[in-house]
Amino acid sequence: MKAMILAAGRGERMRPLTDHTPKPLLRVRGKPLIQYHLEALAAAGFRDLVINHAHLGAQIEAALGDGGRFGVQIQYSPEGATGLETGGGILRALPLLGEGPFLVVNGDIWCDFPFATAKPRPGALAHLVLVDNPPHHPQGDFALQDDRVTNQGEGRLTFSGIGIYHSQLFAGCRPGVFPLAPLLRAACEHHQVSGQYHGGRWLDVGTPQRLQELERLLEDT
Questions:
Q1: Residues 75, 62, 201, 48, Cα dihedral to 10°
Q2: Which end of the chain is more exposed for a tag (fewer CB within 10 A), N or C?
Q3: pTM confidence score
Q4: With contact defined as beta carbons under 8 Å apart, do 140 and 182 qualify?
C-alpha cells in the first residue's frame, strides 16, 4: 500500500513562522515535523510515498529529496502557490497513488499511532482513525459504532487526519479546489466508512502554541 502525506497547507495560523518556511519543515526537537511521519511510515513498512505541496513547496523537495535516507521512495505532487485543499490535492495525486486503497496522513499532526494497524473493513471506501476530542475541538467530528463511522451518534470523536481511502471515493470528482469532508460524510450515509479508535498520543500542530506543546511533550519522553 502506498501512503500520502498532505503538506500543501499554507499554515496561516502558524504565521509568522510559515512566512518563509513551509509548515511541514518547522523543527521540533531538532528535526522537521514531517520527518516524524517519514520515520513512522518507514517503520510500519510503507516504502512508496507521495507528498503534495504548494506554499514554498520547493523547500520540501530540497529538504527531503527522493526519501532514500529515510528508507522510503518519495514522489511529489505540486499544486502551485495556493493549493487545492485536501480533496483536490488527493484527486490530483491519484495517478501516483494507483487504483487500490492508500493511506493518507495530515502533515501538520504528530502522533504515536502505529500505521500498520490501520485496516479498512472490506468494501469500505474509507477507513478513519479517530481520537479523543482536543480542547480546541470539543464537539468532535464523527461517531464510532463498533467499526463503522457515522455522522451522528453518542460519544463523538475527532478525526485524527489519518485515513485509508479507496480511489473510488473520488469517482465523479472534477479537478480543482475542494475539501475531503463532504465526500467522507456522504460515504458515511451509505455505510461505506469504517474506523478505529486511537487512544495514544496525538496532537494537531496547527498553532505556534501547539508547536511549543509538542516540543515539551517530546522533551519529556
A1: 20
A2: C
A3: 0.95
A4: no
Give pLDDT, residue 221.
63
Residue type, 107: G
Q: Phi then psi for 131, rounded to 5 degrees? A: -130, 170
Where are the strands (E) in the chain, listed by range?
A: 3-7, 27-28, 31-32, 48-53, 73-78, 102-106, 109-111, 126-131, 143-145, 148-150, 158-165, 193-197, 202-204
Q: What is the pLDDT of residues 142-169, one digit of tens each?
A: 999 989 999 999 899 999 999 999 999 9
Position 10: which residue type? R
Q: For the chain, what is the radius of gyration of the CA atoms?
A: 16
DSSP 133: P
Q: What are phi and psi of 74, to 5 degrees?
A: -105, 135
Beta bridge partners of 126: 165, 193
Domain 3-219 bears CATH identifier 3.40.30.10: no
Where exactly are the structural domains of the chain?
3-219
pLDDT single digits (tens) 81-119: 889 999 999 999 999 998 889 999 999 999 999 999 998
